[in-house]
């Protein structure tokens, strides 16, 4: 590669690191790529780390040792998280999102990649210390959110299906009871999707009583995995007692009044 100026190199390095969150790059890789000494690259990393941190975009982590290197961790700052959740709550509170039967229309937001990238980084920030091996979700609306969370962690996404597919080989299936309607449903997971003994983080778009999340926790247990956390974009305030005891919701839906077309949805916390 033709030798580049420092400013160009810093821009290129930032692009590589930010596009591959949690991926460990060795300085040797960068040294070969840019024809630059490792000591010079270390100075570049300090500049990038300070710039990203000052703007609240994340941080660089240095891993020591022969197999070490540097990686970008897309930590979301408290102010940035608060602004995004407030923006999402405002979008979801518009009256035209109310669907007859007490449902909230969320598809356009869930399928807006720029928003889901940021939400995925919030979940990564909140659950990073849990060190999951897989991100798990259930088909279908929560897939974009879970996929962006998997991207932030640099981890594979595992999708639970309502019906087993012959193209996925042998599966493990369980029956579970939905928390709100008390109906018995089935969910399945390919046996080879998760290694036994792995740690799993469950991500979903919506939780009412927690029956679906409870089903995923039980299904993960059937394949020998340990669920280390459950994150949802929106949870209802009622019922207050869910079938899942420990979960993180980013937004709380407190009330929907069909007659007045009012939706009361607010951030679940402020950092």
TrEMBL record:
Pfam families to which the protein is assigned, alphabetical: Pribosyltran (PF00156), PuR_N (PF09182)
UniProt KW Iron-sulfur keyword: no
Molecular-function annotations in GO: DNA binding; transferase activity
GO biological process assignments: negative regulation of DNA-templated transcription; negative regulation of purine nucleobase metabolic process
Source species, domain of life: Bacteria
CDD domains, alphabetized: PRTases_typeI (cd06223)
UniProt xrefs under SUPFAM superfamilies: PRTase-like (SSF53271), Winged helix' DNA-binding domain (SSF46785)
Domain Bacterial purine repressor N-terminal, residue spans: 5-74
Subunit structure, as described in the record: Homodimer.
Stated name of the protein: Repressor operon pur transcription purine transcriptional purr regulation dna-binding glycosyltransferase
